């Protein structure tokens, strides 16, 4: 939590740059929540079970707040800027941060019990689309604020699907 707060404080000027969502972004927030809801429900149809307790207060805090900020700061802020320093083309930042974001969800497969490998692969697949969506909003308005909101909305939908 200290890392999240410290990162936001250090990057506050860029974090809150262009925080007003465009019309397309306003439509995308509820669509992102619906996507998260459907992703959770599809997992159930394929008998893929999330390996964490979505009723735990700490899990909810982590799922909806802490992880969103950390992941977006790491992938759509720090890594994005690093890629842009090597290539002036934002398309490379978009593609590479999307792939690294998705891979960050896959790498657990080498350390996790085999019983949750199905969930890890499933999560890796849907995080490609989520990472691409969040990256799009960074690309279009140069602020991670709206990417964090899209990511939050997706995870909120995922959480709401548990009821």
Protein model, in words:
The chain has 163 residues and is an all-alpha fold. The protein has one domain (20-160). 76% of the residues lie in helices and 0% in strands. It has seven helices and no strands. It has helices spanning 2-10, 12-15, 23-45, 57-86, 90-106, 117-141, 145-160. The two termini are 27 Å apart. The mean pLDDT is 85.
Features:
single chain; mainly alpha
Tally of separate domains: 1
Share of helix among residues? Answer: over 70%
DSSP strand count: 0
Principal-axis shape equals globular
The first-to-last residue Cα distance is 27 Å
Structural class: mainly alpha
Count of helical stretches: 7
- Residue fraction in strands: under 5%
**SSE order in H/E notation?**
HHHHHHH
Rounded average pLDDT: 85
Model regions low in confidence, pLDDT < 50 over at least 5 residues? none
> How large is the radius of gyration?
16 Å
Sheet bearing the most strands, described?
none
Question: How are the SSEs ordered, and which strands pair?
Answer:
Elements: H1 2-10, H2 12-15, H3 23-45, H4 57-86, H5 90-106, H6 117-141, H7 145-160
In short, what is this structure?
The protein has helices spanning 2-10, 12-15, 23-45, 57-86, 90-106, 117-141, 145-160. The chain has 163 residues and is mainly α.
């Amino acid at each position: 939590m200290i890392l999240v707060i410290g990162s936001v404080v250090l990057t506050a000027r860029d974090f809150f740059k262009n925080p007003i969502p465009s019309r397309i972004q306003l439509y995308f927030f509820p669509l992102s929540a619906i996507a998260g809801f459907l992703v959770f429900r599809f997992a159930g149809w394929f008998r893929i079970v999330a390996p964490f307790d979505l009723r735990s207060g700490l899990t909810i805090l982590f799922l909806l707040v802490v992880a969103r900020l950390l992941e977006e700061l790491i992938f759509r802020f720090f890594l994005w800027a690093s890629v842009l320093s090597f290539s002036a083309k934002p398309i490379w930042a978009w593609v590479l941060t999307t792939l690294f974001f998705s891979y960050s969800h896959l790498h657990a497969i080498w350390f996790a019990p085999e019983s949750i490998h199905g969930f890890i692969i499933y999560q890796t697949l849907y995080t490609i689309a989520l990472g691409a969506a969040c990256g799009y909003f960074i690309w279009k308005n140069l602020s991670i604020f709206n990417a964090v909101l899209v990511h939050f909305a997706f995870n909120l939908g995922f959480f709401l699907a548990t009821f």
